[in-house]
Amino acid sequence: MDKIARFPDLEGASVLITGGGTGIGACLTSGFIRQGARVAFIDIADRASRDLCRQIEEETGREPLFLHADLRDVVALREAARKAEIENGPVSVLVNNAALDTRHTIEEVTPEFWEDNQAINLRHQFFAVQAVVPKMKEARKGSIVNFTSTAFMINGGGYPSYAAAKAGVVGLTKGLAGALGPFGIRVNAIAPGWVLTERQRALWVTKEGLQAHIDRQCLKEEIQPEDMVGPCLFLASSASRMMTAQTMIVDAGTV
């Protein structure tokens, strides 16, 4: 993490991250803190999030703001965004990271499962944007980074609702970019490949399956959560000031 490039315009920026307490999100929270940003993150994992805050403070001397909320609850999401604004100032960078790639078959999906899955993986991204956009419009600037996935690009059959949601993130990104560009607000997406978080290792990684996937990659290494930090910082910063409506694939060259 210490080898990540510095982006001076992120120092002092008010950053809001969804799902920032574990996995990729925890690395993003730490990464923005190390840039000198004022970071708030929303998560439902209370203990892990509080542990992360303590760890980051011990390592950097600065503590992110943890906001406990279930992102499926739009009222709670809006309230969390309001608290982030009160504490850190108007949000200038929004990172829509939260997701849950629960495996499921076509046969077992109910309408209730579908709605819940879409709420976690797609719907909250729109309402998080809606919550912070008024102040971005006033400032005539802002950067929004939405996390999608290569899962929908590789025809994976074990998560059709998740794949639909992640494809939807790309469409949402492009639609928001068109709507918000006239206000100087950029909207881009990151599509990670198979990132080996603790959850992935615990639930789905096998030695054979992992090796088969790495064999498909151009870069023959495991993708770590930390590998998403640099691309996200780049899209959040003015280094990418003329980039919008784009999806950056970070998958070691699988797609």
TrEMBL record:
Transmembrane segments: none annotated. PROSITE patterns: ADH_SHORT, PROKAR_LIPOPROTEIN. The keyword Nucleus does not apply. It holds the Pfam family adh_short_C2. Keywords: Oxidoreductase. GO terms for molecular function: oxidoreductase activity, acting on the CH-OH group of donors, NAD or NADP as acceptor. CDD domains: SDR_c. Gene3D superfamilies: NAD(P)-binding Rossmann-like Domain. SMART domains: PKS_KR. Residues 13-194 form the Ketoreductase domain. It comes from the Bacteria. Belongs to the short-chain dehydrogenases/reductases (SDR) family. This is 3-oxoacyl-ACP reductase. It comes from Aquibium oceanicum.
